[in-house]
Description:
Elements lengths: L2 H7 L9 H10 L1 E5 L4 E3 L7 E7 L2 E6 L5 E7 L4 E2 L14 E4 L3 E7 H10 L1 H27 L2 H16 E3 L4 E3 L5 H8 L3 H13 L3 E4 L2 E4 L2 H6 L16 H4 L3
Antiparallel strand pairs: 1-8, 2-7, 3-6, 3-8, 4-5, 4-7, 9-10, 10-12, 11-12
Helix pairs in contact: 1-2, 3-4, 5-6, 6-7
Amino acid sequence: MPQEFWFLKNCPLFQQLKDDELRRVESGSRAKKFAAKSPIYLPADESQSVFLLASGRAKICHLTPDGKQSILAFIEPGELFGELALFSDDTTRDEYAEAIDPTTVVRIPADLFSELLANHPAVTLGVTKMIGLRRRRIERRLKNLLFLSNRERLVHLLLELSELYGKRTGDGVELTIKLSHQDLANVIGSTRETVTVVLGELAGERLIRVGRRKVTLLNLERLASSVHTAPPQLPDAQPAPKTIQATG
């Protein structure tokens, strides 16, 4: 079985397609591997394709006018990205995509994917929901950037990451995504130095524990209440261990 076909067949968006339909998409698609920190596409590249992340992890970024990186979204296996090629008349891209880990990406021509959307409402609905969810997250971060302090923005980001990548442990909720202080700063529109200071403050209050590119939320409820919001629903949906309830 061609690897593109296997990747497509195991993507939730395509699971309702028949094998002959998958083969048609596969025949026009190409899989490519990227090393960590390698660009998948760049600003001003032609936007004639959409991409399916088959394995690894990637991020969508934008360069600010002063040349700083702003992270717009993290992409997980099974997710599409570069999808604006389907809905825009622009022939080039504004943002860029970069592999976080060693990554495999399937490139699907935009015209082939548009044909698939026209023939399968379920796929169209899935793509629409994905775009809407991603847009809501970006809009929420923008509002936070305008109205909240650096500490509040960082706490909201940690809570969002726990909802997406949190894993309950005996100590609390470990974020399985590995991000540097600079990565966190690039998401919330701050500086690495400020993020380091705020993480130190939160660690000193025993709300989190920080290791090398690793963060554990020691008290999810108290962390959420510090920014007047409810604790997020974690991916595993398991009851919180008693140790998380301790206020220290």
